[in-house]
Write a structure and sequence with these properties.
By secondary structure, the chain is an alpha/beta fold. About 25% of the residues lie in helices and about 20% in strands. It has helices at about 10-20, 40-45, 85-90, 135, 165, 180-190, 205-215, 230-235, 265-270, 285-290; strands spanning about 55, 75-80, 100-105, 115, 135-140, 140, 155-160, 180, 200-205, 225, 240-245, 275-280, 295-300, 310-315, 315-320.
Length: about 325
């Protein structure tokens, strides 16, 4: 795909037409590309467990996160409702000496490691499968494709594409680096791993490792390596079930067009129906994969079934 940097509108329209999955699974579909992740694919993923080594791919959910308030996204606020102090002072009113602790958390659902649901992004007022956006997501939430529908589906064969190690310097890609289909293909070949129908693909850029050394800076919304808009065809053609990165926005930032904002999202979510994950911590998994040469594994990454939500926090777990 050749990009006219002055015409994001045209490029988005062309890619949306070429990559559309509207109607592929019927007019009532609420799963999008998760339809590719079937029982056989889960059995294939489960068969990859050899050592039993497990890796959490989630960042922590706390006040020390990267959010700076853009579009009212803040870091999680954790508050205790009952504490050991309350129990020790006898303030809880329980019999025979029993005490306990309780807590509450307040946070945007997309403030840390998360999935973007199918109701998260629209294209010219159209949501996934061509539905009218105003009839899908209202003040009551996503009435059609709420993330709760995906809760039992996101488990199967995970594949790490460590593009940072494969094509970057010192294992990391610089901010603003557009990852093309060629980079993805070269990485898969170098790692000896295949990518195809029903896979959950994880793309490591190395940006998270870099900001952990130097501070969050503009990690939440600033310049970042990420997928090029030109990968829209690859995302569609490979029939992957989902994709996640270690960056805030999945696609390269600044975006590749003038006067554009997240154009690849505008194709991938409402037209391809692709489940997109962001801010995943792939560092420990990547070290292990580099060590044993095995880049495919069992992966479970169920969203919280928050009724009507357009995104969800997640603690993905990879098992090798």
């Amino acid at each position: 795909m050749t990009l006219d940097r002055h015409d994001p509108e045209g490029a988005i329209a062309d890619a949306a037409t070429a990559c559309s999955n509207w109607g592929r699974w019927g007019e009532d579909d609420v799963l999008g590309t998760l339809n590719f992740l079937d029982e056989a694919k889960r059995r294939e993923g489960a068969s990859l467990v050899r050592r039993g080594a497990s890796f959490s791919l989630s960042q922590r959910f706390d006040m020390n996160g990267p959010q700076k308030g853009w579009r009212r996204r803040t870091n999680p606020v954790h508050t205790m409702l009952d504490t050991g102090t309350d129990a020790a002072l006898g303030n809880q009113g329980f019999p025979h000496g029993i005490g306990g602790a309780d807590d509450v958390i307040a946070m945007p659902l997309q403030c840390s490691t998360q999935w973007d649901g199918l109701g998260h992004i629209f294209d010219h007022g159209r949501a996934w499968n061509g539905r009218a956006a105003e009839k899908v997501v209202t003040s009551d939430g996503d009435l059609v494709t709420g993330i709760e529908h995906m809760a039992s589906h996101v488990a199967g064969r995970g594949v790490l594409l460590d593009v940072g190690r494969a094509v970057g310097e010192d294992g990391e890609l610089p901010d603003g680096f557009p990852i093309t289909e060629e980079h993805l293909t070269v990485t898969a070949e170098a790692q000896g791993v295949s990518v195809g129908r029903g896979d959950i693909v994880l793309v490591r850029t190395g940006q998270l490792a870099r900001v952990r050394r130097g501070g969050w800076g503009d990690y939440a919304g600033g310049p970042a390596p990420g997928l090029s808009f030109t990968t829209a065809g690859w995302l569609h053609r490979t029939e992957i079930a989902a994709i996640a990165t270690d960056t805030w926005g999945f696609e390269v930032r600044p975006n590749e067009f003038e006067h554009a904002f997240q154009p690849l999202h505008q194709v991938a979510i409402p037209h391809i129906g692709l489940l997109i994950g962001e801010m995943w911590d792939l560092e420990a998994l990547a070290e292990d994969c580099a060590g044993d040469g095995a880049y495919a594994f069992w992966l479970t990454a169920a969203p919280l079934p928050v009724t009507g939500a357009v995104g969800s926090p997640v603690n993905p777990v990879a098992v090798k």
